[in-house]
Specification:
Order of helices and strands: HEEEEEEEEHEEEEEEEEEHHEHEEH
Number of domains: 2
Oligomer: single chain
Radius of gyration: 27 Å
Helix content: 10-25%
Strand content: 35-45%
Structural class: alpha+beta
Largest sheet: 6 strands, antiparallel
Low-confidence stretches: 5-30, 61-68, 199-241
C-alpha cells in the first residue's frame, strides 16, 4: 500500500478516535465574536432664543429606546458612543449523558470611544479614547454593562458623563460581574473611578418625574405608530434639576408640514425628509423649556392645522386617581384625573 495512503488512514483514525476517552468527548470547542454597541448619533440642533434643542439617534429595524443619547443640563453637549468588545466562548462537550459546560473568556475592549458634540453648533468637539484610559488604569476586565446608558451629572458647576460598566472576572467555570461607575469631566477631562466626592445632581430620566399623556384619540390615526406611543402614552421626561422637558419619539412620526416646529428648528425638516427617504429608523429627543404646555407639544407633533378633539375620551377607573371613570373634555381635566404611568 502506498505510504501516503497509510499515513492518511492513520490521520483519520487519530481524528476520529482520539477525542474519545472512556466514552466521553473531551475536545473543547471555542468561538469568538465581537459585540458592538453604538449610540447612533445622527444630528443635533439648538434654538438660540429659548435653548430648545433636539438630538437624532438612529437604530436598527424596530423601535428601541435603549442606549439613548444624553443631553446635558446646560444643553451644551451630546455624545456619539462606539464600543466593541471581544468575547470568547469555550464549550466543553462531556457526552450525551451530561450537559455541555460553557466557559466565557473576556477579551476586553477592542474599541471604546466617545465623540463629544456641541449641541448649539452641531460640531464635534473631541473624541475621547476610553479604551486607552482603561488600559492606563490597568483595568483589563472592563466591558460595557448589558443595559448601557450614558447620562450627564452636574458637580461643582462642571459637566460629567457617567457610564456604567462591568468588571468581569472569570475563575474556572464561574465568572463574577460587578457593576462599576466611571465619571469623565467634559470640561477638563478629569477622570473618576467610583462615586464623585460629594452629592451630585443627576439629569438622566431615571431621576426625573415622568408624566404620560394618553393621546391615541387626540391625534390622527396615521400618527399612532409603534414609535410615537408607549402603551398609547406620549412620554414626557420632566427633569427636576435642569428645568427642561424632554420628549422622546420617532422621526417617522413627525409631521411633514408644521410651520411652528420647523420655524423653531429650521434644519429639522430636511433631516426628517432625508431619513424617511433613505428608510433610516431614528428616534428624536427634544428638549424644551419647562414652562411649555402639553397642548403646545402636541401641536408641534401634529400636522399643520390639526385640532385636539376630546370627544369620547374616557379615563378608566384603573387609570384615575380616585378609582372612578371620568369623561374628559380638556387637557386640564385629563391632568386632573389620570395617574402617571411608569411603564
Amino acid at each position: 500500500m502506498d505510504k501516503r495512503k497509510v499515513y492518511f488512514i492513520i490521520f483519520l483514525i487519530i481524528i476520529i478516535v482520539c477525542p474519545w476517552f472512556n466514552g466521553k468527548l473531551v475536545e473543547s470547542y471555542s468561538s469568538y465574536y465581537v459585540d458592538s454597541k453604538d449610540s447612533g448619533y445622527v444630528f443635533c440642533e439648538s434654538n438660540k432664543e429659548d435653548s430648545s434643542s433636539y438630538v437624532i439617534q438612529s437604530y436598527d429595524d424596530e423601535y428601541d429606546d435603549g442606549y439613548i443619547v444624553s443631553i446635558d443640563t446646560d444643553n451644551n453637549y451630546t455624545f456619539d458612543i462606539h464600543t466593541k468588545v471581544g468575547v470568547k466562548i469555550i464549550r466543553k462537550q462531556t457526552g450525551n449523558d451530561a450537559a455541555d459546560t460553557y466557559y466565557i473568556e473576556n477579551n476586553g475592549f477592542i474599541k471604546f470611544t466617545i465623540d463629544v458634540y456641541n449641541i448649539k453648533t452641531g460640531r464635534k468637539i473631541r473624541t475621547i479614547d476610553m479604551k486607552n484610559k482603561f488600559e492606563r488604569l490597568g483595568l483589563d476586565n472592563i466591558q460595557p454593562d448589558s443595559d448601557q446608558e450614558f447620562f450627564i451629572t452636574k458637580f461643582n458647576g462642571k459637566n460629567f458623563v457617567c457610564f456604567m460598566v462591568k468588571n468581569s472576572e472569570f475563575s474556572g467555570d464561574r465568572y463574577d460581574d460587578r457593576g462599576r461607575k466611571f465619571y469623565l469631566c467634559l470640561d477638563d477631562m478629569s477622570f473618576y473611578d467610583g462615586e464623585l466626592p460629594n452629592e451630585v445632581e443627576y439629569s438622566d430620566s431615571s431621576e426625573s418625574i415622568e408624566e404620560y399623556i394618553p393621546i391615541k384619540k387626540l391625534l390622527p390615526k396615521n400618527l399612532i405608530t409603534l414609535n410615537i406611543a408607549v402603551k398609547n402614552m406620549f412620554r414626557i421626561n420632566d427633569s427636576i434639576y435642569d428645568n427642561k422637558i424632554r420628549i422622546i419619539t420617532s422621526v417617522r412620526s413627525l409631521p411633514y408640514n408644521n410651520e411652528k416646529l420647523y420655524t423653531i428648528f429650521p434644519e429639522l425638516k430636511d433631516e426628517v425628509a432625508y431619513l424617511k427617504r433613505k428608510n433610516i429608523f431614528a428616534n428624536i429627543i427634544f428638549v424644551f423649556p419647562k414652562d411649555i404646555k402639553a397642548e403646545e407639544i402636541l401641536e408641534l407633533m401634529s400636522p399643520e392645522g390639526h385640532k385636539l378633539v376630546f370627544d369620547g375620551i374616557i379615563v378608566k377607573a384603573e387609570d384615575s386617581y380616585d378609582g372612578l371613570s371620568h369623561q374628559v373634555h380638556s387637557m386640564e381635566e385629563l391632568r386632573k384625573y389620570i395617574k402617571p404611568d411608569k411603564e
